[in-house]
Specification:
Blueprint lengths: L8 E5 L6 E6 L12 H4 L56 H13 L6 E5 L1 H4 L3 E5 L1 H8 L6 H17 L6 E3 L13 H14 L5 E7 L4 E7 L4 E5 L11 H16 L12 E3 L12 H14 L5 H5 L9 H15 L6
Parallel strand pairs: 5-6, 8-9
Antiparallel strand pairs: 1-2, 3-4, 6-7, 7-8
Length: about 350
């Protein structure tokens, strides 16, 4: 980049105006994706408030203190704050499975000073290689039934993928990488639609896709059948997605792109291409959504009947028992324990 001083040059200062750490140019570009941490900004254009940018030779402008209403965007909620390496793994809840106790004991010794369990899932899971890790905070959260991170969910989907292979059902059901579609840090609707359409094109005929979707500190599950051009949606809190672009992405734009890749015209629009499944079990607290989404996926994977409208189509007022959630914890821990030696 030409860094010759001109009217569009600007400099990034930290703490004081004199402490210049970077030089760049002001460009007229619309950046709609929200970047929350430095790692997210690598290789990206970063939107910066105009009142905090002073171009070369211009007079400094005092930043306004006016509070503005946030614009509609992608992922306005802050992500879950996950403090690593100081979680108490000595004092555990009662009645944990042996596998989870073993994992907690192992993590208490080895997951310190930023150390994590790292792996790369092969393309048979999400259609592309996927780096994932488990940190001390993930083990603590699962043991105490707290919020489930993306990475913890990836490891459970890896476990369910093994179940699919064992049952010879991998041609029927496929998982989708939630990093590529969830409301936080997942790109524009067009980018998300494109990722979905490519996955559909590369899949097997008549496959359905299980897509964990995070709407901002809350996990939900979307099940898509691209050939039938339909989607079913499960929210553990039974909330609606009023005003969200997600139903349009799933049932319209991604399907059109998929049919375009196949050089086919979309079929006649179904009467109910998008349908919430109101009969699925409902969570009774504000932190169990991740475990419920895991349980939904487990039920779909282990059940030969994948007629979801018949299974969960009408309201039933069900909820999962503590034992059913404990089973998810144990399966997750037993699967994660297979990775430290890799």
């Amino acid at each position: 980049m030409d860094l010759t001083c001109d009217e569009n040059e600007c400099r990034l200062a930290v703490d004081t105006v004199e402490n210049i750490v970077a030089i760049a140019k002001v460009i007229d570009v619309c950046v709609r994706d929200e970047i929350l941490i430095v790692d997210d900004a690598v290789g990206s254009c970063v939107a910066w408030p105009k009142d905090l940018v002073v171009t070369h030779g211009a007079k400094a402008v005092t930043a306004t203190t006016e509070t503005k209403k946030p614009k509609r965007g992608y992922g306005r909620k802050k992500p879950i704050q996950r403090i690593q390496d100081n979680e108490d793994l000595d004092n555990l809840p009662p009645n944990l499975s042996k596998a989870l106790i073993d994992l907690c004991n192992w993590a208490n010794t080895f997951l310190k000073e930023g150390k994590t369990i790292n792996t790369v899932f092969q393309a048979d899971l999400f259609g592309h290689p996927k780096k994932a890790y488990i940190c001390r905070a993930d083990v603590y959260s699962i043991a105490h039934k707290k919020e489930v991170s993306n990475n913890a969910l990836f490891f459970y989907m890896s476990y369910l993928n093994k179940v699919l292979k064992h049952n010879k059902m991998e041609d029927m059901i496929r998982f989708f990488d939630s990093d590529k579609v969830s409301a936080i840090l997942s790109g524009t609707p067009t980018a998300r639609s494109r990722d979905l359409s490519v996955m559909y094109k590369n899949g097997k005929p008549r496959q359905i896709y299980l897509i964990p979707y995070n709407i901002g500190q809350h996990w939900t599950l979307t099940i898509v059948n691209p050939e039938l051009e339909t989607a079913r949606y499960i929210d553990p809190l039974k909330r609606c997605l009023d005003g969200s672009e997600w139903p349009v992405i799933v049932t319209e734009s991604s399907i059109k792109m998929y049919k375009g890749l196949l050089k086919k015209q979309p079929g006649k629009k179904k009467a109910s291409p998008w349908k919430p499944l109101l009969g699925a079990p409902i969570q009774k607290d504000d932190v169990s959504c991740g475990y419920y989404v895991m349980r939904y996926m487990k039920k779909i994977v282990e059940d030969n009947n994948i007629d979801l409208d018949k299974k969960w189509g009408t309201s039933a007022g069900l909820t999962y028992t503590a034992e059913e959630i404990d089973e998810i914890q144990g399966e997750w821990a037993e699967h994660v324990l297979q990775f430290p030696d890799q």
